[in-house]
Write a structure and sequence with these properties.
Layout lengths: L2 H20 L14 H4 L12 H12 L21 H13 L10 H18 L6 E5 L2 H16 L3 H5 L9 E6 L4 H9 L7 E4 L9 H13 L3 E8 L11 H11 L2 E5 L24 E4 L1 H4 L7 E5 L2 H8 L30 H36 L3 E3 L7 E6 L8 H18 L5 E5 L2 E7 L7 H15 L3
Parallel strand pairs: 2-3, 2-4, 4-5, 5-6
Antiparallel strand pairs: 1-7, 6-7, 8-9, 9-11, 10-11
Helix pairs in contact: 4-13, 5-13, 6-8, 6-12, 9-10
The structure holds pyridoxal-5'-phosphate.
The site of pyridoxal-5'-phosphate has 13 residues, from helix 6.
Length: 474
Amino acid sequence: MNRKSFRKYGHAMIDWIADYMEHIDEYPVLAQVEPGEIADSLPKSPPEEPEEMEAIFNDFKGILLPGMTHWQHPSFFAYFPANTSEPSILAEFLTAALGAQCMVWQTSPAATELEEVVTDWLHHMLGLPEHFTGVIQDTASTSTLCALLCARERATSFAINEHGFRDGSSQSLIVYTSEEAHSSVEKGVKISGFGKDQLRLIPSGADFAMIPEELERAINADSKDGYLPCCVVATVGTTSSTAMDPLRPIGEICDHHGLWLHVDAAMAGTAAILPEMRYILDGIEFADSFVFNPHKWMFTNFDCSAYFCKDPKALTSTFEILPEYLKTDADLQVKNFRDWGIPLGRRFRALKLWFVIRSFGVKGLQEKIRAHIELAKEFESWVREDPQFELMAPVTINLVCFRYHPSNHTLSEEELEQINKALMDELNRSGKMFITHTRLKGKFTLRLCIAQTNTTREHVQDAWDQLRASASNF
Ligand code: PLP
């Protein structure tokens, strides 16, 4: 591709993106294709000869776009969001253009130093304790894996790093998390060699939050049985229902028993930029590590996960490597983020965060987050007031868990599940909105999460109207 054509298609694609964003609500939110349909429309082998950008771009629009689920659609209420925004997209262009590999300070001093600056900004915005230091990872899954590895090494005085699992020391290490924790904790436990048998799922209460007394009981029982309690992963905003594990009592238990406390606030952490929501992090000073994802609810393109830790030495001692070819004269004066996580290679992720925070301003970000929380409260009130629907969990921030449950019929749990599943599928097939489900204490539950960058009250009202209209046919 020559420069002239690059310029031409660069302009054309920016225009296309701006139009896409302007008309996104005309697309079906959930891709309306069958499995295999997209792959069947594509050639089985790569082209031998160069192809024109015109043809490639046309195939993107004609073949791939229909197979996309539109995460930036304002009626996307599914899962947790992966929202973006105009400044974030522009920064991603620049990151791609620079194509820098930001593994050590020397490979792009601005990338390392901007990462220090923006993580300090986030630190300040969330009101995190003074003693935390931040670094950007790709995802919360990776951040949690880093925490588990650090906890493992601290508990064994770095013996597993040195000698592996030979002497069986890892067999007695135990990790605790709630039964409502995200699957990334289980994955991290498997990867880091604790093994699933060494993961204790602590029961949650009626609010789906971890019960601290049950945690303490499990730790004491394990200690008595000769195990070595090692790490607790608490969740601020669980995936199923945004339940809030009580950090203060959990932190006090960890402090008393000398356990590593990692706090996973993947989506909900962003809410702490609101002074009135800071209480969700009450007790965070007990944490050894904390993660939240600006790529979920802070209008910053995937991927961008902010990891904060009390003792960066635990991180660097766990991950440090120093081959001759990476040594530089600046090593003693600078941070080399290659030692703050798993991969050596690092993208310039700080740039998009810097663009977003500057372009929205802290106040602009707060307004959006506050509006989402208020809309969730309003949706909750509609569910509460309607005898045909039932609220399934406390609404702690921006997620409403509910189900259709007509008060004038006696329906079994099985029938309720069938009806709600059919209702969800019908709405998602319509392309007008997208919600997903979970299971709470065994009950099939619909989840509606309000967090998309451009969702307004009108979109939430429409979703409620569609839900009620479809439900009346069942
Ligand atoms: N933790 C929680 C509470 C989550 O809800 C999620 C994803 O939704 C994750 C971790 C995993 O996030 P990531 O995709 O960044 O690994």
